[in-house]
Amino acid sequence: MLATRNPGKLREVAAILAELALRIEPLDASVALPEEGDGYESNAVAKALAAARATGCVALGDDSGLEVDALGGAPGPLSARYGGPGLDDAARCAALLEALAAVPDEERSARFVCVAALATPQGDVATARGVCEGHLLRAPRGSAGFGYDPIFAVGAATLAELPAAAKDALSHRGRAFRALLPALRTHIR
Ligand code: ITT
Predict the structure, then answer these.
(1) pLDDT, tens digit (0-9, with 9 covering 90-100), for 14-30
(2) Which of 56, 116, 163, 167 could form a disulfide with 176 if both were Cys (CB 3.0 to 4.6 A apart)?
(3) Among 1, 64, 172, which is best to mutate for testing ligand 1, by the most ligand atoms less than 8 A from CB?
């Protein structure tokens, strides 16, 4: 069970955890996820706990965001809402590029951060964090992935130009969920 409404995350987490004999299912739309605050860890735990308590199953949560050095680390945990309500991924990327228009290439460093959380219906929790360092381009490139992937480059390629498995190998989400594997294994019979 993955407590997310984001299909891109669901696809990635299912692939990252493919070595486990598990089926990662999306959370039923009728189960409310908590309002998000400004901490990755508390947000991820709150999502996983809400799903675990609602379903009676071990559940996973993901809270993630993009930290832009030229913006003092913003938007961070507020990344899903950057630019205002009602924007799609492309419009959010465009809003961020516009905010960074005057920032020179050598000051466009950024990182994706992900905290992966596991929760049981009894309230036990475990978390793991993953980080992916990169820089922001001036225009989107590539069509894979989701969110800010087309404007975030690691080396020469944006995450949206990489095959899914290559993104998972170096991404914040890949690192966080692989670090969570030992805790997850203790719940698999
Ligand atoms: P859930 O809370 O339902 O899981 P969400 O999309 O609202 O979905 P977050 O609050 O964790 O999730 O927001 C993270 C945002 O950061 C996400 O919407 C993207 O805009 C961005 N983001 C996170 N991981 C990303 C990735 O791998 N590639 C591109 N953008 C990413």
Answers:
(1) 999 998 888 888 898 99
(2) 116
(3) 64
